[in-house]
Amino acid sequence: MSSPEQWTHPEPDAAPAATAAKPTAEQVIAGLRATDEGGADLVQLLTPEGERVTHPDFDIDISAEELRGLYRDMVLIRRVDREANALQRKGQLGIWVPLLGQEAAQIGAGRAMRPTDMAFPSYREHGIAWTRGVHPTELLGIFRGTDQGTWDPVEKRFHPYTIVIGNQVLNAAGYAMGQKFDGKVGDDDGEATMVFFGDGATSQGDVHEGFVWAAVYDAPLVFFCQNNQWAISEPTERQSRLPLYQRARGYGFPGIRVDGNDVLATLAVTRWALDECRHGNGPILIEAFTYRMDAHTTSDDPTRYRLSDELELWKLKDPIERVKVYLVRQQWADQEFFAGVEAEADELAENLREFCVNMPDPPAERIFSNVYAEGNPNLEAQRDEFLDYVSGFAGGEH
Amino acid sequence: MPQYKQFPLPDTAEGLTEAEILTWHVKPGDTVTVNQIIVEIETAKAAVELPCPWAGVVTELHAEPGQTVEVGVPIITIDTDPGGAAAPAPAPAAAESNGTSSGKIGEEMPGGRIATLVGYGPKSGTAKRRARKDSAPAPAAAVAAAPAPAPVVVPEPVAVPAPVQAPGGYVPLAKPPVRKLAKDLGVDLYALTGSGPDGVITREDVESAVSAPSPVATQSFVDNGSRERRVPIKGVRKATAQAMVDSAFTAPHVTEFLTVDVTPMMELRARLKNHPEFRGVKLTPLAFCAKAVVLATRRTPDVNATWDSAANEIVYKDYVHLGIAAATPRGLVVPKVRDADRMSLKELAVALDELATVARDGKTSPADMMNGTITITNVGVFGVDTGTPILNPGESAILALGAIRDMPWVVDGEIKIRKICQLALSFDHRVVDGQQGSQFLADVGALLADPGFAMTY
Predict the structure, then answer these.
(1) Are both A258 and A384 inside the same structural domain?
(2) Phi-psi label, residue B119: left if phi above 0, alpha if psi -120 to 50, beta otherwise
(3) Checking CA distances to B112, which of A12, A245, A298, B298 falls within 20 to 30 Å?
(4) Which residue of B has its CA nearest to A305?
(5) Which of A144, A299, A395 lies nearest to residue B14, judging by beta carbons?
(6) Touching check for B48 and chain A: CB below 8 Å?
(7) What pLDDT, on the 0 to 100 scale, is given for residue B88?
(8) Region labeled Disordered — which residues (chain A) (predicted)?
(9) Considering the domain B235-456, what is its CATH architecture?
(10) Looking at the complex, does the CB of residue B39 fall below 8 Å from at least one CB of chain A?
(11) A353 touches chain B (CB under 8 A)
(12) Is A296 within the bounds of a domain?
């Protein structure tokens, strides 16, 4: 049994642990299959081939104009994403968090919200920001290191980006509880809150706590989890024994898995979930089954941990192409429309580029000025000392 | 008029300082568009493609594939207005001030960018820090102040202030505010000894230096320097170092140890000393050890062989050129006893004595040190018990002979005081396996423990 030839081979019948340090070839292939197929519970209204299908529980009556609008949203935000990625590669941004592949999940969810609803993003929600009326240029400062985002979270009903993983789920749970306490829940005009996080965040204690609090207080909160299959380099199947949407059952509220690359299904499911919440039937978990087509951030190299086969499979499920095919097939859009959107995207990219390279560097006092709402003598002394030090350099501010 | 813009290597992840150029996708003369992939680079984190920031014509590539480039150093020049009127060739220096300073690590990065020579000339180099206002007017400052974001062509090369030479090669450790205080008070940090952790100069150190400029304060790094001696590495020291490093990193060493009761050998030595034939001969334990080694090599020729990696052969030798490591005023030398295997014990003893005398006089010729086949190092003369010797390059075994001491030893079930000696054999495991090495060491031990065994060889 202990001859040297056997030392190098694992025991053939010993099942490899799911949490083994390195996945076996079988696990990789199994994982590949798992990411590719959403399972029987996946809600889908538009197939990757662009065919409209029905669903017994969720359906949507969408006009040509509405769908053209969703198409435009997705094309523009994808272009913004690619342009920002390129700006990072040119040294104009310190980092960028790509959303490539998740356009339908974000545009579908974002367009389901009413202006009175509140959204809590993580850091990849450029599509949600777009639907809340936050211009992409307002995001750039965060990634250039010049500001914290320039939109008014109260006016836009869009909280600042949260970098700490899962942390915003607690904030959102609290906010939604507040909506309930304020009596803004219970009828068609009710308010709801939606919080965005990824599959990786579901392993965080904050998300668990958010689930618990929202559940016991019947908070009008939609937990919108974009399962893009990869928590940086960790695949979902190594983080959960069961599909993420099934976790909701343990907390006592519904969990729905929707095709996150299907903007119609995402819109339909999210609209339903928000309506449930505003009527007092929250919370609800939505798992948008999607895929991160690019790196986790510009600092990441996904070729080190995932197979390109997987990427190729997901390319066939592109969220934009299926809408384009459907629009053409329905004769809801012509070449002129598509060319117009392209031109608009070019213009937006140009804007973004110009805006980015011309962004002024913030004054040195900025690091002190936004710390306290009212002044603090200690901090002011530090500020004066620092400004005095900085002004000692030739060449002025830089 | 052509507008030349230079694209500095960006930090594509967080806090990277350099990247290697993998492939250029463009060459001089190519027309490029915005966001066209121009080059692939590899950083410590990932291989990434860089998009072109401007449309235009490639004028020059400043780095070759395989070259490692620091972040901030221009890698490509692009003419963004090639249709313009004729203009001089690419300027010798161009300042890239396209707002790229953001997100870099403080002012260390070429944020206040100093113009860099086109081509492979010096990088932003020594003048990365902006000059203080109160310092002498630095020509570099004017260039650094070039307004963002419009790229500016600055034709004249930039004079770079020479860096201050640090006496003794040390840089005093002090935090920036302390440095400023020292500068304001006119205190030379080089003359201070830091009282903080790891010798960091504190605010108190600077203040006390002002209040009491006593000689105490001059116990400085410079002073430390005078208590150190720097000797150039050359000659025997250098040759030894080279040989040891070569050997240690090419031959996989194995060292085995054996403790032997050499009382019978010492008794034999005492008898022979009184023998007329050995009158006047310096008969040392080393001579016995040498004899034992040459006898044992007969039974285990592997230890006397050489690994010839160039020829892919192991060279077995029918002779033994026995090296003896000798400490001399010049350092370690290893003269050889030629054909030691054909010598009697007396001849060996005489040869070893001569060898030692010549070596100590520093007269060992380089030829005397060449072509050994096996070596003995007599660490015992220093009163040392044993060691793990490093092979002489080209040889496959070296034996360390330890000091011979009176030690308790079990003889026939009783503890007796005996002459005990430790042997250590290092061998090249490419040539010699544990079995051969062990046998050789056991043979040498047996011969020293009972010289009568030699009769059986």
Answers:
(1) no
(2) left
(3) A298
(4) B46
(5) A299
(6) yes
(7) 47
(8) 1-20
(9) 2-Layer Sandwich (3.30)
(10) no
(11) yes
(12) yes
Which range scores top for mean pLDDT: A152-166, B17-31, B226-240, B358-372? A152-166
Residue A119 sits at φ, ψ, to 5 deg, of -120, 140
- Any CB–CB contact under 8 A between A364 and chain B? no
List the B93-95 sheet strands across, edge first.
B116-117, B93-95, B152-153
Position of tokens 């009163």?
A: B383
Q: What is the pLDDT of residue A238?
A: 85
Same domain, A213 and A314: yes
Other residues' Cβ atoms within 10 Å of the Cβ of residue B4: 21
**Hey, CA dihedral for B197, B201, B205, B207, is it positive or negative?**
negative
Residue A18 lies in a domain: no
Chain A 70-89, CB below 8 Å of chain B: which residues? 83, 86, 88-89
The pLDDT of residue A84: 96
CA distance A205 to chain B (A): 27
| In a shared domain, residues A32 and A96 | yes
CATH class of the region B4-153: mainly beta
Residues A195 and A139 reside in one and the same domain: yes
pLDDT per 10-residue tile (average), chain A, 398 residues: 39 44 60 65 93 92 96 97 95 95 97 97 97 96 91 96 96 97 94 97 96 97 96 89 93 97 97 96 96 94 84 92 95 95 96 94 85 87 91 66
With a cut of 80, say whether residue B410 has pLDDT above it.
yes
Interface mutation vs chain A, best among B102, B130, B132, B184, most A CBs within 10 Å: B102
Q: What pLDDT is stored for residue A69 in this prediction?
A: 97
Q: Do A81 and A150 lie in a common domain?
A: yes
A209 and A140, same structural domain? yes
Q: A129 with A278, same domain?
A: yes
Residue A46 CA, chain-centre distance (Å), reads 21
What per-residue confidence (pLDDT) applies to B76?
A: 94
pLDDT for B129 equals 55
In A, which residues are within 8 Å of B141 by CB distance?
394-395
Partner-chain residue, chosen from B47, B107, B149, that has the shortest CB–CB distance to A301? B47
Do residues B398 and B386 touch, judged by C-beta distance below 8 A?
no
Helix axes B285-299, B263-273, angle to 10 degrees: 120
Kind and range of the H or E run holding B4: strand B4-8
Classify residue A97: in a domain, yes or no: yes
**Nearest in space to A244 (alpha carbons), one of A261, A232, A226:** A226
CA B234 to chain centre: 15
Looking at residue A241, the DSSP 8-state letter turns out to be S
d(CA A263, CA A147): 32
Q: Tell me, what amino acid is at B13?
A: A
User: What is this model's ipTM?
Assistant: 0.73
Tell me how far apart the alpha carbons of residues B172 and B193 are, in angstroms, rounded to a whole number.
Answer: 8
Give the mean model confidence (pLDDT) for residues B214-241: 64
Nearest to A371 by CA among A355, A360, A382, A361: A382
Tokens of A339: 């060319």
Question: In total, how many domains does chain A have?
Answer: 2
Residues A143 and A228 in one domain: yes
Q: How confident is the model at residue B450 (pLDDT cuts 50, 70, 90)?
A: very high
Please give the CATH architecture assigned to the domain spanning B167-226: Irregular (4.10)
